[in-house]
Structure prediction request, 420 residues.
Amino acid sequence: MVHQVTGSMQVVTALCRLGHCVSETQLQRLESALAARQLSRSSNLPSNITPRVPAVFCWDNNDILEETRSGANTTHCTNGIVIQRVVDGRIPDPTASRSSRTTRSKSVQPVPMDIAKFLGGKRVGPPPCGMVFSLLQPVSLSFKQVASADLAWCLSRFPLLDTGVSELAGSSELQTVPSWTNFNKSIQSSVPRMCNVGYCPVIDMSPTQYDAVYTLLRQSLAMADELDMADAIVVLDQAVYMKAAEICWAKRQELSRIVLRLGAFHLASTFCAVIGKRFGDAGLHDLIVESGICGPSSAPGVIEGRHYNRAVRTHKLVYEAFQRLRWIEFYKSLPEGDADMHVVQAKLQLLRSDVNEVNLRALQSSPEFQNIVRGFHTFNDVGTGPLSHFWSSYICKFRYAHILYQFTVCDSGAAPRKYI
Prediction:
C-alpha cells in the first residue's frame, strides 16, 4: 500500500529497516507472483465469486495520471468489479485454488489482452420500447409506506401547538429527531446482507474509446455465462453509458442480453438536474439563495445537479419546509379537538422520544394516522389553484424530490425490490 501510494522504494526500504514491512525484493516477488497467478487463470471470473449465483458487473475508468515532464504517456485503463450477494454467510476463499509452486522472479511478462474491435458503421438508434408508462398508475403498497414514513419524519420534527403554528425557531428547545438520512438509518432494524466483491482483469485502454467499451461488454457476457445468468447487468457512469448504449443498439443480436444501468450517483445527479430544470426559474433558485441554504455562486451548480451533496441537502430542506407550510394550513382546517389528531400527536411524541422501527410502524399502522394522511392528501389535491398545484408537484405522491429520496433509500441496499 505504501509503495502504491508513494511510488517510492526508498520509503519502503526505510520502513523495512524499522521492522514495519517486508523488503523491496520480497515485495517485488509477491507482486510478481500475484500477477503471474492471475495471468495463469483461464477464466475472467474472479476466483472469490461463487458460480451459479447472480451478480452485477461494474466498470469505470482508472486514470492514474503519473507525473511526467510533458504530461503525456500517463496510464489510462478500465477497471471492473463483480458484486455478488453472499450465500449462506460464506465467502469463497480466493486462495483455495492457488498453486503450491513458488518463484523467486521479481518480474513477470504480461500477456497481451485481446481487445475487441468495434466497427460502428452507421449509427443506430434505440429500438421501440413497446411499453407504456404512466405516472397515474396505481401506487404500490411499499411506496405508500415510504411516503408515510417521510411524512412521519416531517411531523416528528415539527412540534405543533394548539394554534397549529410552530415556534421552533424562537424556542430554546433543541431538535431531537435526526435529519432525513439518520432517521432512515434509525428505523432500519435489518442490516443488508454482505456482498462479495471480486476484481476483473484490467483492460489496458481508456473507456473513452469504443473498443474498450465493446471489450468490457463482451467480458461481462462471458462472466455471466460462467455464472449461468440469463442476462448481464452492467453498471456504468454517464460518459461510458452513452457509448455502451450506442454499441448495444448497433450489436443487438450479440449484446441482446446486456442490461445497462446508470450508476446511482449519476442517476441521482441527473434527477437533481431535472428538478432544477422544472423549478429553478420558477423561484427555486431565489428561494435557496435568499434563505441562506446556498450561496449565490453555488446555487447554479445545485440547480443543475453538478454539486451533488449540496443539491440533495437543498432538496431535503425545501421538501421539509414545503411540507410544514402545507401541514399548517391543513391543521387549521381540522375541527377543534379532533380525536384522530389527538391520537396522532401522542404517537408522534413517542416517536420523537425514541426513533426506531417499532414506534414508526405503530404510527403508520394506526387507523387515526391513516385517516389523517388521507385527509391531508385530499386537502392538498382539492380546491387548489394552478400555482399551488405546480409547487405541490415538488413533493406530492412520488414525483420529483420524493422519487429522488425513495431512490436514495432503495439504492443503499436495504430495499432492492423498491429499487427495481
Summary: The first helix runs from residue 2 to 6. The radius of gyration is 27 Å.
